[in-house]
Design a protein that fits this description.
With 157 residues, this protein is mostly helical. The protein is built from 6 helices and no strands. The longest helix is centred in the C-terminal third of the chain and has 33 residues.
Amino acid sequence: MNRQLVVALLSGVIFGLGLAVSQMINPAKVLAFLDVAGAWDPSLALVMASALLVMGVAWRLQRRRVQAAAPAGLSAQPAGSAPKAGIDTPLTTGAVIFGAGWGLVGFCPGPALAALALFRPEPLLFVAAMLAGMQIHRAWQSRDRDSDQLKATAPAD
């Protein structure tokens, strides 16, 4: 097994353990955090703030590494980052769907995958629905691409 795979595996295991220890894999805990108008449990705010702090440091280190490696006069985009873009309909729609799903069931993708280790039906059902949704989205995108290609190759009137 190469070094990158080992690092990725260890990172995933540490991330999953962090989700478990912080109770992010417990839908009741997450739903209590999201219930700001009722019996709000703010404890997950500390988990999120800690994650933002660690990620902020990581992005800063990554930016420095890329800038040090870039030839003079060229700007490089950090590996794994998306180009900067505005807020558009797909982004907003995705955020609404993500938030609605998280608020309804108390799972989001990472914690749901980590919760599979508990061998309970709820995360299994959530992950199955998530994978089905991903396949539906992929088919929808493919249909749109095919439609755009047909329009581009159709003879003009």
